[in-house]
Design a protein that fits this description.
Length: about 850
């Protein structure tokens, strides 16, 4: 049996695991007793499906047919607030959850109703992120909830709307239940892509203040105006109803806390419950007066937003070190709060987050988001709206929490910029060295100028919050909510080599007929064939998005999220409205397989057309047999110039590939009424997308994972981590603004970052990321032997946390394919 003692230098996380295996105590358990006690009550539990949200939502929607959608949605939320079971967990200082106790997921039948009855039977047995459900609840879903939604869902509407040539690259069946994994729509997985609410508005005004604003606007409507009566009135009435709904929900928690306090024998816990009751009676209806009230108000808001809709990657937490700081500093100065008490409140939020599991009913959604994916990003650092460094004492406290309380919730993100304080970068580096993948880094030097170029003011751009995997949002200015396409450009490469066909799909003509690759005489022939398939995929994605943008508002509303958005309130429009005046519509499509495509094209260009070491016939023959008996050819191809090594040969090809996408976005995004930008953020989709792509000319074997995000292909980056940064820089087209996030994974050994000298190296590395204006980077600091040991003996390594794709998860919760993908990533032992 492998033991992680064999690894030599261990990360703090690995050392904690080793201590646990040896039966040693965790010293932080004594100082974080409450958080560990709550964590112990559910950790390792298989998530359960709670059907109450779906049940009450469906009951209300059935009763309000024919009314304006935003009004129906608000009434459904009020029905949920009135009837859903409320809980007060043992040891908790915060009230509010969206489902049953323990780990749980909830259903959104407005999304999945057309296949919910079938999928609900498979969830307990599926390989990726399984859930359990009681037979009684499954019966209710199958017999009562799902039948109502048949024929009413957005997914069915979209499936019918797609033209035949778009449908064949999108879905693998007439009903649109199976993805083709070529140009994959993602808008049917969620009601909205990643989002950040303006939590500060609730803390300062409360939902009572938002309700009052809506009532004043209602009173000012023109009674004779058809627009005011048919559009603005239902919206404003919905804001009033949803404000009442969340207040009702909070007060039901207050009543339960009082009831539990009355029965409680322990005087300390009795006092905690009484305090909880008083706070829930006040917030989020009224403004918060202290840190405890502020945390509770924010927690109610984020949890109720999960009842409102399925926000892709879970609604994010915004700049917590900014909007909580005034309450924290005031309470600290006036002696009402200590650092440790503040830490206890926020860690009560962390363990509350860890119990809500974002459930993907769709098999495609589950495959794209393995390990119970979650991105409720908490942003620290960055700049103030007037461009000054924003780091404060709460920024450091949140980083400290990540080091002392090892949990992969929340997803912590640190904003860096050219003037980030040395202490901040040092503590960020120390937290990265802990080894659980936190924090991920987002770079102001790239994000702020891009947002300004797209219409934001500098003040708005400086105040962005990290949202979802690696994206960002500007509360009150961003208005776009539709999911975009994941595009398998490695499939475009395969179609270029096989005249519009793929091994996976046999003789079916899917792409353009671009000629027999055996007859290609020069590099330009292959390049033109690839370009034709690439452009076809972009055309398909943009047609998808055009239809998506015009269909979604018929199916989704967001009255609470809209109430918290300045522009929605100003124009009395729901946030899902396709065009909101003064809003900035920023969406994106994903490039999947970037490194795979670059390396494959570079290999053929170099080996076949320039050096003539191999013929095209030899390459195609090796691909056809998946390199069986052709290992010599495979090694020749693998040793051609590769992306990730600061090699201009490969990087120039990468920049030309990127240029195809940004040029297309620049030309046609305007027709969609949005910025539809190229993004390199696969989540875990590079694994299922790889399963439809045959062997590729970079030596990758058939059906194996594609390269990840804007990272190098596995094992291809041999010149060290700085070379990866330089390749990333060199493949971007900085003359265009039609680009969004690039996700970059880098894996270090703990030995590389050992001691203060290792921390100094990491600080310097982060400053290089900043100087190169790279959007995102995240790290695994772990020994390969640890991952192998965890794969062989998962029970001993139940608590091993790894960084995946903009989020961290327990390694043992991942499929073997994704585990192997993580193990195969290049391990850097020097900088």
């Amino acid at each position: 049996m492998l033991n992680i003692e064999c690894c030599g230098t261990m990360s703090p996380q690995e050392q904690r695991l080793q201590n646990k295996i040896e039966g040693k105590k965790d010293p932080y358990r004594a100082t974080h007793r409450r958080a560990f006690a709550i964590l112990d009550s559910f950790e390792g539990m298989r998530p359960r499906i709670d059907i109450e949200r779906a049940k009450y939502f469906t009951e209300s929607m059935r009763a309000t047919e024919g009314q304006p959608l935003v009004l129906r949605w608000a009434k459904a939320l009020k029905h949920i607030a009135d009837n859903i079971t409320v809980y007060i967990d043992d040891n908790q200082l915060l009230a509010g959850r969206a489902g049953c106790q323990g780990r749980y997921g909830i259903l959104y039948p407005e999304l999945d109703g057309d296949f919910l009855d079938v999928s609900i039977k498979d969830l307990p047995n599926r390989r990726e992120s399984p859930f359990s459900i009681t037979p009684e609840d499954a019966k209710v879903v199958i017999e009562d909830i799902a039948p109502y939604w048949k024929g009413k869902t957005y997914h069915e509407d979209l499936n019918t709307a797609l033209p035949a040539d778009v449908h064949k690259l999108t879905y693998d069946d007439p009903e649109g239940l199976r993805s083709r994994y070529i140009v994959n729509e993602t808008s049917s997985f969620r009601s909205s892509i990643q989002w950040v609410h303006d939590y500060e508005k609730v803390l300062k005004r409360g939902f009572g203040g938002l309700r009052k604003e809506a009532q004043e606007k209602l009173a000012a409507l023109d009674p004779l105006s058809p627009v005011d009566n048919c559009e603005k009135r239902p919206f404003l009435e919905a804001v009033v109803i949803v404000s009442d709904a969340i207040v009702t929900w909070a007060k039901r928690h207050a009543a339960l806390a009082r009831e539990k306090a009355a029965a409680e024998k322990d005087p300390l816990r009795k006092k905690e419950l009484q305090t909880m009751a008083d706070i829930c009676e006040r917030v989020p209806e009224q403004p918060a007066r202290n840190f405890h009230e502020a945390v509770q108000s924010q927690w109610f808001t984020q949890m109720f937003s999960r009842l409102e809709q399925k926000t892709g990657t879970i609604v994010s937490n915004g700049r917590m070190d900014q909007y909580f700081y005034p309450y924290y500093a005031k309470d600290l100065a006036e002696g009402r709060l200590t650092e440790d008490q503040a830490l206890e409140f926020i860690e009560c939020m962390w363990v509350g987050m860890a119990q809500f599991i974002d459930l993907y009913i769709s098999p495609n959604g589950g495959a794209f988001n393995e390990g119970y994916a979650h991105w409720e990003a908490v942003t620290v650092g960055g700049q103030t709206p007037d461009g000054r460094d924003a780091t404060n004492d709460l920024s450091y406290l949140l980083l400290r929490s990540k080091r002392e309380f090892p949990l992969h919730y929340p997803d912590l993100a640190a904003r860096i910029h050219s003037r980030s304080p040395e202490r901040f970068l040092w503590e960020v580096s120390e937290t990265i060295k802990d080894g659980s993948g936190f924090p991920k880094l987002i770079n102001d030097e790239e994000v702020v100028p891009l947002y300004v170029s797209k219409g934001a003011t500098f003040a708005e751009a400086y105040d962005y919050a990290v949202s979802g995997c690696s994206e960002a949002r500007m509360p009150n200015r961003d208005t776009y909510t539709s999911g975009g396409a994941y595009i398998n450009f490695a499939a475009a490469l395969e179609m270029a080599l096989y005249n519009g066909r793929m091994h996976k799909y046999g003789d079916k003509q899917l792409g353009k007929e671009t000629g027999d690759a055996h007859a290609f005489k020069c590099w330009e022939d292959l390049w033109e064939a690839y370009k034709a398939q690439h452009i076809l995929f972009l055309k398909t994605a943009f047609i998808q998005q055009y239809l998506i943008n015009n269909l979604r508002a018929r199916h989704f509303a967001q009255p609470m999220g809209s109430a918290m958005h300045d522009l929605c309130m100003k124009y009395c429009l729901d946030l899902h409205t396709p065009q909101i005046p003064e809003g900035i519509n920023m969406g994106y499509f994903e490039y999947i397989g970037f490194g795979t495509v670059i390396d494959s094209l570079a290999a053929i260009k170099k080996v076949v057309f320039e050096d003539k070491t191999l013929t095209m016939d030899q390459v195609l023959e090796a691909l056809d047999c998946n390199f069986e008996g052709k290992e010599d050819i495979r090694q020749i191809l693998k040793n051609a110039p590769c992306y990730g090594n600061n090699d201009a040969y490969a990087d120039v090809i990468g920049r030309e590939i990127d240029l195809l996408s940004v040029e297309y976005g620049n030309k046609y995004s305007k027709e969609l009424g949005m910025h539809n930008d190229v993004r390199y953020v696969p989540f875990t989709s590079h694994v299922p997308f790889g399963k439809v792509v045959g062997a590729t000319p970079n030596g990758r074997k058939a059906w194996s994972p594609l390269s990840d995000g804007s990272s190098a292909s596995h094992g291809a980056d041999v010149n060290g981590p700085t070379a990866i940064l330089l390749s990333n820089f060199s493949t971007k087209n900085y003359g265009y603004r039609d680009r969004a996030a690039r996700l970059l994974n880098i894996k270090f050994t703990p030995k590389c970052l050992e001691g203060d000298s290792g921390t100094r190296k990491m600080v310097s590395f982060i400053r290089t990321v900043c100087d190169l204006k790279l959007w995102h980077v995240q790290f695994n600091v772990i020994n390969k032997d640890t991952l192998i040991a965890a794969q062989k003996d998962p029970e001993k390594y139940r608590n091993l946390i790894v960084r995946i794709a903009g989020y961290s998860a327990y390694f043992v919760d991942l499929s073997p394919d994704l585990q192997n993908d993580l193990i195969a990533r290049t391990e850097h032992d020097s900088m």
